[in-house]
Structures are given as structure tokens and as C-alpha cells.
Amino acid sequence: MRTLTLQRVKFTMGLPLLKRAIQEQAEKTKNFVSRSLVIGEVLSMADMATGVKCGIIYWLFGGAVRNLGSPAHVTKWLQPLQEQKYTGMFAMTERGHGSNVRGIQTEATFDLSAQEFVIDTPCENAEKMYIGNSMYGNYAAVFAQLILNGRSHGPHCFIVPVRDENGSLHPGVTAIDMMYKEGLHGVDNGILRFDKVRIPRENLLDKFGSVAPDGQYHSPIKDRSTRFNAMLAALTPSRLAVTFQAMGSMKLGLTIAIRYSHRPIIILLNCSLASAGHW
């Protein structure tokens, strides 16, 4: 079922309408959010697993790049995503931190000499959980505490490689299958752990906070709480997509339920007409 869902995602996102939607996302075309939400709703009415997986890859991962990254990030990551050269995932939730994003424990420590961030899962509570596309995805948008000289500057988002083009996990990355989720057997949710995985400094999505080559932190928003709120607010359209997907599924279910509820009345009416000799 998961393989079939992935095939459906690739076919669907190869359609001209969907490719145009991703391009509009990259270019921030007027009303692109509304159109994307409607597309997600319709996809979920056709097949919920396909709709959810498209949302993970293109609207959660892709949305993180677009909303939290620089124009250079958008060019580097969204174009090949649109061309289906790789797939992504969105890794925010942790075992010990569901809605408490501010308290996440995954660490991204800057190594000045190597010009790299070291992504690490320091404890069990820091494991990323219920991550969609975790069994197939090549890259993850990972939220982690940005640490410079032993000091945390709060949660930031990093692009972390998970698998190569052949599907093999990169060294230091562990992905654990959480198996089937009822109603979404085509979606591969899993647990992600990182053991000192190194990524380039440029893989920090730095719209709201950046690290210069000399290790200095810079942000257009000086207040830490305000900066954190701005980062989460930028992801609101991606989170709204979940409600539209649920709405699409509810519409379909309601239509089926209403039609089914009318069946006994129709059958009874037909029987009455037949017994009365009208047929």
C-alpha cells in the first residue's frame, strides 16, 4: 500500500496543475495559499493517504523551505523538489515535545572550524516521532536548538540528509518504522534519530536567524520570543492544509452516509409501489 501511495504521489505531482501549484509556491504568487489548500482538499477526497503524503512532501517540507529559508534556499531546494529529484519530510514533533516546540531537545551545534552544524539526538525524548515519509524521504526539515559556543539561540530549521538517491540511510541517521496508522496505511510514519550528523552551514534555513562564517548569530528580529513566534506563524498555511484535508474527507464521508441513509426509504417505497400493483 505504501509503494502504491508513493506512485500515486509521483503521478499526481507530475500533473501540470500540481506542478504549477509548486511553482506558485516558490514564487509566492498571489492567492497561491488558497489554491494549494483547495488542491489538498480535493486530493484527500480521492485518496486520503495520497493527499496526506503530498502535503508532507510539498506543503510541509516545501513550505518550511519557502517560509523559513532565503531566496537562495528556495532556488536550491524547491526546483528539484518540483522535478521530483528527491522527496522530503517535516521533523518537528519529538517524543517528549508534541506541541511544545520551544522545548525541543534535538541539537544543532555549530562547528566553527568545519563550517558545519552537528545535528544530534541527545536523549530518547528528543527522538523525532510520527514523521511522515520517514521510510522513503531523502531530506528532512529538522527543527533543533541552534547552539553557538554552548548557548542555545532557540529552535531553528535545518535541511538534513536522511537517505541517498538509492534509498540507503546516511551514516548517523536511524529511521524506525512505526508501522500502519489506521485509515492511513499508505503513509509511512516513523521515528528519526541523529547521531552527530554533519551538515553544511548553508543548510540552516535562515530567514529569521543566520550564522555568519565567523560564528556570529544575526537576526532581523532581536527579541527571542518574537522571533520564535514569527517562525511558527510563517508555517500557519502548511498547518491549515491539514484541516482542509480533513474537511475533504468529511465531505466525502457525509455524502456516502446521507445516500446510504436514504436507501431503506427508497427500498420501502419501491416495495409499497410493487405491492399496490403500480409496477
From TrEMBL:
Keyword hit for Transmembrane: no
Keywords: FAD, Flavoprotein
Entry-linked SUPFAM superfamilies: Acyl-CoA dehydrogenase NM domain-like
One Pfam family linked to the record: Acyl-CoA_dh_M
GO biological process, one term: fatty acid metabolic process
Entry's Gene Ontology molecular function annotations: acyl-CoA oxidase activity; FAD binding
Cellular component GO terms, alphabetical: peroxisome
Highest taxon, organism lineage: Eukaryota
Residue stretches making up the Acyl-CoA oxidase/dehydrogenase middle domain: 90-197
Cofactor(s) listed: FAD
Matching PANTHER family: ACYL-COENZYME A OXIDASE-LIKE PROTEIN, ELECTRON TRANSPORT OXIDOREDUCTASE
Protein name: Acyl-CoA oxidase/dehydrogenase middle domain-containing protein
Lineage: Eukaryota, Metazoa, Chordata, Craniata, Vertebrata
